[in-house]
Amino acid sequence: MDQSDPKLSQSDGRLRRSAQTRQALIDAYLDLLRENQKPPTTQEIAKRAGCSVRSIFERFSDLLTLSLAAADYAFEQAMAQAAVPNVDADLHTRLKVQVETRAAICEKWLPLWRALLRYRSESEELAIRIKRIRGAMGARLALVYGAELSTLSEAERTQILVVLDILTDFESWGRLREDHGLSIEAARDLWVNAIGRLLPAAEVSQRH
User: Do the Cβ atoms of 173 and 110 come closer than 8 Å?
Assistant: First the structure.
């Protein structure tokens, strides 16, 4: 068919507008989560996205499906946000970059993470996404600190990775920022110091 066919152009335009509306709904869902720290209603999402409630259910079967789409979008964004580590750099450089990256991800996506945990018992797909996110973050820790961890036995390495994962997860970041009232910089410094003490023979410079 000729690419200049008006019917084809109209179809492309509808698909493009539909995709734009879908993304606007995801963005509205995420923005409202960050602002209110609780899952928004369909009315709130529609109002923020500038569309009707009907538009939500034309693209998502329910709010859980929308939250799954938001989780997929967030995962892609977080992976793009995470710099590829230079595993040959000195420990201070690797530690600084890893903490800054993970802190930025936690700061941005903590509200969504809490929403995912809240509904994980209702959806096997959601539980799978949570496991995938945790697995990716754990794999990044093993990669960044591979040089130091390689000096340990398998059992010791596993133990350190578990502790590092718990220390620098979303829930930990939320407690540092909210329960303890730390600034982003202070919370990052705490992570740097704690990780430095956990890693074998680590002498982390205090330069910032």
Answer: yes
